[in-house]
Amino acid sequence: MPETVLSLVGALAAICVVLALSYLFTRYVVGRTGLPRGLRGRHITILEQVPVGREQKLLLVQVGERVYLLGASQGSVTYLRTVPEEEAAKWRAEDAAAHPAPELSFQEALRNVIRQRKR
User: Fold this and answer.
1) 10 Å Cβ neighbour count for 47?
2) What whole-number distance in Å separates Cα of residue 98 and Cα of residue 104?
3) In what order do the strands lie in the sheet with 66-73?
4) Which of 5, 15, 42, 112 minimizes the number of CB atoms within 10 Å of its CB?
């Protein structure tokens, strides 16, 4: 009986360790890599999402070189307007200056996080 309880406690501890490592990995490693800020497909990128109500949000979507403002709610997407090219170019320049994307490989990012944790 004590062996069964001990093995159960060990299994629960292993699950807790895996969950904690998963959380730390997603929070610290993935958050600091050069992953794109928006959701990205081959030709469509969601640049920004802003919630405006319960299950309602505004989306800035880039398709090719054009940027569209869309409204999305549960069950519908509404076209609001096309963002003028000059305005979109200004936003891209501001975003690039504010958030320079580091060119880190996964291995380099993991090493950086481990080094920071050791300190």
Assistant:
1) 20
2) 18
3) 39-40, 44-53, 56-63, 66-73, 76-83
4) 42
- Within this chain, do residues 30 and 61 fall inside the same structural domain, yes or no? no
Query: 58 with 50: CB under 8 angstroms?
Result: yes
Kindly report, residue by residue over 8-17, the tens digit of the pLDDT. Answer: 999 999 999 9
102 Cβ contact partners less than 8 Å away, ≥ 6 residues apart: 32, 33, 34
Helix (H, G, I), strand (E, B) or coil at 113: helix
User: 54 is written with which tokens?
Assistant: 């319960």
Q: Report the distance separating Cα 97 and Cα 6, nearest Å.
A: 55
Domain contains 70: yes
Q: How many domains does the chain have?
A: 2
Q: Any residues with CB less than 8 A from the CB of 114 and at least 6 apart, and which?
A: none
pTM (2 d.p.)? 0.49
pLDDT of res. 109: 77
CB 33 within 8 A of CB 102: yes
Contact 46, 57 (CB under 8 A): no
